Amino acid sequence: MNGADSLLATLTGNGLDVCFANPGTSEMHFLAAIDRAPGLRAVLTLFEGVATGAADGYWRMADKPATTLLHLGPGFANGMANLHNARRAGSGIVNVVGDHANAHLQYDAPLTSDLMGMARTLSHWVHRSDSSGAIAQDAANAIAHARARKAAIATLVLPGDVAWGPASGGVAAEPLADDVELDEDALESAAQALLGGEPTLLVLADRALREGPLELAGRIAAHTGCVVGAQFFSARIERGAGRVAVSRIPYAVDPAVEFLARFKHLVTIETGEPVAFFSYPDKPSLLKAPGARVHAICPRGGDGRAALERLCERVGARASRAVVQGRGERASVRGALTPQSISEALRVAMPENCVLVDESLTTGRETYALTAAAAPHDTIQNMGGSIGFSPPVSVGAAVACPDRKVICLVGDGSSMYTIQALWTQAREGLDVTTVVFANRRYQILNNEAANMQAGNLGPKALALTSIDRPALDFVSLAKGMGVPGRRVDTAEGFAAALDAAMAAQGPKLIEVVL
Amino acid sequence: MNGADSLLATLTGNGLDVCFANPGTSEMHFLAAIDRAPGLRAVLTLFEGVATGAADGYWRMADKPATTLLHLGPGFANGMANLHNARRAGSGIVNVVGDHANAHLQYDAPLTSDLMGMARTLSHWVHRSDSSGAIAQDAANAIAHARARKAAIATLVLPGDVAWGPASGGVAAEPLADDVELDEDALESAAQALLGGEPTLLVLADRALREGPLELAGRIAAHTGCVVGAQFFSARIERGAGRVAVSRIPYAVDPAVEFLARFKHLVTIETGEPVAFFSYPDKPSLLKAPGARVHAICPRGGDGRAALERLCERVGARASRAVVQGRGERASVRGALTPQSISEALRVAMPENCVLVDESLTTGRETYALTAAAAPHDTIQNMGGSIGFSPPVSVGAAVACPDRKVICLVGDGSSMYTIQALWTQAREGLDVTTVVFANRRYQILNNEAANMQAGNLGPKALALTSIDRPALDFVSLAKGMGVPGRRVDTAEGFAAALDAAMAAQGPKLIEVVL
């Protein structure tokens, strides 16, 4: 048994049975070991950003970490943007990054770089293993951090000689102590505000947005009149008919300020108070109403369900009945493609238990509200703002949930950062329907130029926000990667394409030309 | 005038007139300023790795820096792999990275990350500008470092408030002192070895591989019997008929050791002694013969031409006549596609003054030797080993040299890291012919598994080195991005496709199915 075998035994022995891989020469011993490791599913990607995004999506739906396999500093670098998104979502991931043998580093060979420096910028835990005898324990430590309640991006650097040197078996990962505590004072002050009937918004995030905790929040709302809300972006929300609806704080500063104006209290659970996504001249960074009070009961990484249970008990809402979302009516969708007709087509087509991975920054901005009455489903959003998110995350969600339909919403601009995800979807036969909203521009930039008070954009600047010359042909791109695609330009065409996609298995792409 | 105007005035005032851009919200003032800045050409890319690779290619052919425009930490991260390659090649680049306004950073908004930490891992010079009044001087400093003889990756972080705050005009960049000196002792010992007729290899790199310095090396070789050589990868070589031929040290360790065995002396100019690309069990990291002596006349970033002039003078070769490469014969190429027939078709088709950007790791490994007798041309290679190099670098080379044909050689695996470059080629009408060698596997990994002594790869491992399921269809991928493509599977088909591409203007793609 060599170090690579011992690492793999530790991964699979601790239940980490999926690896999103983009290997290189320095990972050859790891590769060779895979055929000796029963139970590891290795999923090949053509670009590291697909691997890290897939690991993020896998975490969100499986509630356990996947492994990535990356190649030295540049391979890690290519995965960093989606690691940023994963970190912001609180996802746990174990990155295994191959590197030169320790004795070779001093010669500064071409692929040598400041891998540890790169890894530290986005990982909560980083370790360069220094012997083949130690790699199993090192991997167990990485796993412990990645799957803790306060989940970590854990990056384990695997030098060549550590992979090929002698080792013994796997090591069991010891659970880390859960050291995130509720703030008792904030809990009491929040309860007082709620009991006093003050206008209050519960701002929930992460695992507090699952069905069970939401039901508790719904009881508190029914009992006290508060509103159940979330940040504009959430890691995963269990929503739809029969579940407690969650109001979304708007993205743009002015509507967000307007939405928050009426709340004198914000009770935050697994998140902080709402802040502006960007900084703008003469607009605030903090969005709450002047004088509003923030009751930070439970920080990120804390136990939001426990916080809601305590709050429910304290305000006497245990026996209240949460108001849940009704089911929308079956409707036929016709006419022009608008944000409304697109959302309506989605609402009607979305099957029960589907996973909606939503990175439709402008076209889909109204989708959230307008799909509230869809069948029960999960929505996954981009917490980090680095675009090129939803196609890779859909890969991971589909691997985690092979029996659920995954619908990936993405803008044409965003999709092109990680379009290589389509190939992995085809290779693995993943049941992902990718909907590309092709407005042929970075529409969000046109919107934001006004918010930024940057003045009128001239022709050169507008050309930099426009991707219409040439128009991307997503049906050809999909075909090039083995995914069948179709193009629609009416609401009924979109509805029909969605229905067909939901009725069949396997990856498909729908280009929605706006 | 705001900070963005002042930054742009500094860039264009110092002759930096090309910007490879992938902007976001925080760069809106920079965008708006472009229409007020005469002479800046802004080239949009769909992925940051294309922007940074293009800046690398631009430097190599224009001998001056381009600017990139990137969006916060994740945007920089996406550009890092090709910045690594650029850094290894000694290319100068000015990265402008937009960031949140200084006052907004404390709120840890979603796109906040350790941008400075990321930038430091790959930049020689990093600065976060702290006021709109200072940005012009900050940019002048960045430019000075990027265009120094020892060229820098210079990264300038532009916070929102620095872009939108008041400022005055541009600032001229002061040249940096050239502080890299020749090693006089090494020069003398090298001369003694050469004059003594000892078996000696000149190992040249970077600007020592241009026609003029090479001619000096050729005179030294003619006079002393030494061999003119280069590392396996070089930033740019001016080569072909009528120029001094350069022997390439082989990539794999065993052939490299064999090649170097006969040399008792290595004279290194703008590079170090040859080292193995990767570390392997039981193979050496240093490749020179036992007991061979290294005469390090001129380090990276030094004046290789001056070193060769001094050496030429010292050994009395001034009046010698360099042996130059003859012109190969016109030949018709037929039969199966092999590395030989592919190289021969290239040799015949390559027009005078073309730029060959070579990232064909396995299929094209013999291309270098077999195209030595092509018409005079430049070859650009990947110095950093991070794949996904040649399509973006070809963008920059074509922008720098609009009157020259650019031929981009790339493997199917490598191409998919930055395939988005095709769209920018179409958008800008760049005269790039992309040749994709589709062997439908990461062939280099199959080769390297044996070198790594990783044992036989089982079916799961082999699946991770294979990209045949589904086969990528590059003609469809190119069509999707507006580039006309064709597929060939014979040598004559390849030759005909190359001829057609050389006879027309604009981007094309040839998929060579192996």
Describe this structure in words.
The structure is a homodimer of 514-residue chains. The first copy, chain A, has helices at 3-13, 28-34, 48-62, 72-89, 115-122, 135-146, 160-164, 184-195, 211-224, 253-260, 304-314, 339-349, 367-370, 390-400, 412-415, 421-428, 443-451, 459-463, 474-480, 491-503, and strands spanning 18-21, 41-44, 67-71, 93-99, 125-128, 153-159, 200-204, 227-230, 237-239, 247-248, 265-269, 293-298, 355-359, 377-381, 406-411, 432-438, 485-488, 508-513. The first copy, chain A, has 514 residues and is an alpha/beta fold. Chain A folds into 3 domains: 3-164, Thiamin diphosphate (ThDP)-binding fold, Pyr/PP domains (Rossmann fold), CATH 3.40.50; 184-314, TPP-binding domain (Rossmann fold, 3-Layer(aba) Sandwich), CATH 3.40.50.1220; 339-513, Thiamin diphosphate (ThDP)-binding fold, Pyr/PP domains (Rossmann fold, 3-Layer(aba) Sandwich), CATH 3.40.50.970. In chain A, strand 7 (200-204), helix 9 (211-224) and strand 8 form a beta-alpha-beta unit. Chain A starts with a helix and ends with a strand. In chain A, 64% of the residues are buried. Chains A and B meet through helix 2, helix 4, helix 5, helix 7 and helix 16 of A and helix 2, helix 4, helix 6, helix 8 and helix 17 of B.
